[in-house]
Amino acid sequence: MAAAQSAQPGKHLLNVQAVLLAAALLLPGIAPSLFGWLSVLLATPIFCLLTINGQKNGALIIRNGVLLGVAGAIVLKIVPSLIFALTLAPLGYSFSKSFAGGDNAIRTGARGAVVLAACWLIFWVIYGTVQEINPYHHLLEMLDSGFAQTYEYYMKSSDLPAENIIQLEQAVNELRRIIPMILPGILCCTVLITVWINLTFSATVLARIQPENTPWKKYSQWRLPDKLIWVFIGAGIFLLAGQGGLSQAAVAAFLSTALLYFFQGLAVFIHMLDKWNVPIYLRILIYGILIIQSYGLVLLTLAGLADVWFNFRRSLPIDNPNTK
């Protein structure tokens, strides 16, 4: 009997894994200041449950966890928070499908980005319909109002010199002008960052739980397709020449590809640290400096771009799109 129960853990509603999944769904709504970050990591436990327990049992555990989460959200009156967290569940299923099909990390991430973007678009369309608002325009208005209120606050509460006040006004007006142009790109980058975080977390967690079933290669070996550089270059050209909607599309493409090359630059950097056997305490210090110093992020992006031509990791085998 015990063997049968362990073989089909998903049949029990109060299975430990289901309870933990329900907790991950509820905590962001219960204490958003402490656990709000969990809502953007839901794809990781979904992927791990499906991979560790198998598709059938994993799906049963996920179903039970979601049912427990929905019941708890109704009691605690945090249903909107839970619904938003669940928009990342299809991303976990997408990772699982790609992993089972033998896709490498880059192809897995690309498919996941499309899935997540579609899920969020559907979510916000439904939300806007229910609330009778345009979520995108509402977000623009909130940002514009926030900048205006910030300027008024500093005008009333500070004793800034006249010269500084003029500079502040110019800076705020410039931000209010460019935000509508770069917001689509920021939203695209938000999708990419969310997918990247879940992809790296999924690989790390599963490698620790089931080392024999490690998904994809080490992050330091991840490599973008070389042809992507032409998207970056083309976006830069259109950004300089385009106007209106074309300019917005160019900004979105430029920011998105720049972010992807930052991820690649980080992989190159980690590869170098591994190659030179840098101690863990020194790595933590270096990572801290890179985060604090904004130019470090730019350098990593440039390293990712330069890797296309100089191939800093030339000792590594070239990726086959259909392999891990």
Topology:
Layout (H helix, E strand, L loop, with lengths): L1 H6 L8 H15 L1 H4 L7 H11 L1 H22 L2 H8 L2 H12 L4 H27 L3 H23 L4 H48 L18 H14 L3 H31 L4 H13 L1 H17 L14
Protein model, in words:
It contains 14 helices and no strands. It is mainly α. It has 2 domains: 161 residues, no CATH class; 99 residues, no CATH class.
Proportion of β residues? Answer: under 5%
Q: For the residues shown, what is the average pLDDT?
A: 89
Distance between the termini: 38 Å
Largest sheet: none
Q: How much is the radius of gyration in Å?
A: 23 Å
Question: What is the count of structural domains?
Answer: 2
Order of helices and strands: HHHHHHHHHHHHHH
Secondary structure: helix percent: over 70%
- Residue windows where pLDDT falls under 50 for at least 5 positions: 1-7, 320-324
Task: Please give the count of helices.
Answer: 14
**Beta-strand segment tally:** 0
Shape: globular
Q: Helix/strand/pairing class, anyone?
A: mainly alpha
Descriptive labels:
mainly alpha; disordered N terminus; 2 domains; 324 residues
Could you write a compact summary of the structure shown?
The chain has 324 residues and is an all-alpha fold. The chain is 77% helix and 0% strand.
